[in-house]
Amino acid sequence: MSEYQYVVFQAVDRPLNDKQLEFAQRQSTRAEVTRWSLSVEYHYSSFRGDVDGLLRGGFDVYLQHSNYGTREIKLRLPHGLPFAESVWSKYVNGEQLNWARDDQGSGGILTLNPFHETGNIEDVWESQKSLDAVIGVRERLMSGDLRALYLLWLCAADDDYNDPAEMIEPPVPHGISEVAADGKEVLPFFGLDPLLLVAAGSGVAPAPNADSENRPIIQWMESLDVRRAKAELHRILVGDPATEKARLLAEIRDTQKPGGWPTSDRQRSLDDLFQQTAALRAEKSQQKARQAQATAKREAVKAERERVDRMQEMLKAPDKWLREAEQFVDARGTDNYKAAADILYDLREAVGGEEGERIARQHAAHLAMKYPTLNHLKSSLRKRGLLES
Question: Where in the chain are the domains?
């Protein structure tokens, strides 16, 4: 099997300017580059461009995966981690999850790259879903949502060099199970079951009451005077709407001051969480099986009711149904042969007695003689007891 690697960079806050775009285009001759993204896939090779340079030069998110086990994401946080170091250092271990601060300013790059042996995690087939989820995690981080950092810790802790029994979880942010939407894509990207977040949230308080997601936007709008509002509307109408929207959202986010996030210190091992996740998965599978059985039972009852109704119609006009059976055979195909046999079977039951047996068997023999080469047809008729072997 050949080696495969996919790399994508995404600008989220604002598009690249001309200088940044020129730098991005120099990083790979094979990449597709726009002001919003850079993506490239390799066979028998890998990306050799300046990843961190691209992130400090306009892009906000980096995602990379290969079919030989590597998984990596990088998040550019222009204003740094919105938590005190005494808080974030409990989640960021400096190895599988690393924070690299810029030489100047408060910004930096958060890197997640746990090690997995080839074949230990499944291949990624829908990169865009994973990328969208990672962008969502970045948004949560920048708004001061500690749950996003715990989610990344889970991914980092599941490293093939780590012993799950010795990996003790950091403080669990309240409402951790409520970020399942992000975890549904991020956790599988790193080979983990999305129910891990539900297990982590067991016995943990819900998230603190907070303003709606649109509240910061409303507050910012209310702060505008008429002149500024008209100027922003003009820029949206004459400029690129996506660019202007991204600029405004970045400005709104920069004005927010995230507060603390309540946590519970559970001190569970990663192995404990894995075992609880396995139990939840088994329970969910059983529930799904019960639901499937109930659905199948309802469908069977409905099908039998429809069959009885059809048999009543058959009794009124047997010849019409004999012609319909023949039309199914004329249409060819295994499903149509089965449908023709079902019609003759039900017609026999509807008419009943020796007469029903005679009509059905006589027409089955007629079909077998008319279409002597259609072995699947004859097989369907035999299975219904309408044709001798």
Answer: 4-285, 317-383
